[in-house]
């Protein structure tokens, strides 16, 4: 089965591939633009147990996705929600309302303090100005790296990084997409929003 996702913006390539994999019999060949679309689809497929082979074709990237994938893909949402991850959604580089400088100080202190709490989230999702915390120049990069070493998955929205011209300056965690963010939030056992 062939699927052309060139020119699609996030999260359309991942959603299209997900739908195609649900009905595909055999290999799925996907044409994608370089950058976030290629990375997001690869991460999505591999994260669900598929094998991915990549080649350049007609100025685009062709990913061939094969294998049975994980059975969990088709699991009912209710069953997943009971055992899903604890997720922290960070949508800003500040904590609370009030003076910007104070808000940035509070956010820095909060993230550093997470290193000393017994239970940390399984996944931290950074969106909007929150992605500035994961990019070069952030005061919490060391803390985020230590959280990552403790098993916390640190993910930053690719569209947001592009918007702030920070994608090449990402220093903590990995780039993600809106499909993964939405899926993480809807299958989480708990969500903390900052």
Automatic annotation (TrEMBL):
PANTHER family per record: SULFUR CARRIER PROTEIN YEDF-RELATED
UniProt similarity note: Belongs to the sulfur carrier protein TusA family.
Domain UPF0033, first and last residues per copy: 2-66
Coiled coil: none
Species whose genome carries this gene: Geomonas silvestris
Gene that this polypeptide is encoded by: yedF
NCBIfam families according to UniProt: selenium_YedF (TIGR03527)
Record protein name field: Selenium metabolism protein YedF
Pfam (any one): TusA
């Amino acid at each position: 089965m062939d699927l052309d996702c060139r020119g699609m913006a996030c999260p359309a390539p991942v959603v299209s591939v997900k739908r195609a994999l649900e009905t595909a019999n055999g290999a799925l060949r996907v044409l994608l633009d370089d950058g976030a679309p290629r990375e997001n689809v690869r991460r999505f497929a591999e994260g669900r147990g598929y094998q991915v082979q990549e080649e350049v074709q007609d100025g685009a990237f062709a990913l061939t996705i094969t294998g049975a994938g994980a059975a969990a893909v088709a699991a009912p949402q209710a069953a997943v929600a009971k055992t899903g991850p604890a997720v922290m959604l960070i949508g800003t580089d500040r904590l609370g309302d009030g003076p910007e400088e104070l808000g940035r100080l509070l956010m820095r202190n909060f993230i550093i303090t997470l290193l000393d709490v017994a239970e940390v989230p399984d996944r931290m999702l950074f969106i909007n100005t929150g992605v500035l915390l994961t990019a070069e120049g952030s005061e919490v990069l060391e803390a985020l790296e230590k959280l990552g070493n403790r098993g916390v998955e640190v993910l930053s929205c690719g569209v947001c990084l592009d918007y702030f011209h920070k994608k090449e300056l990402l220093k903590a965690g990995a780039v993600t997409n809106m499909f993964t963010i939405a899926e993480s939030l809807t299958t989480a056992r708990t969500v903390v929003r900052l």
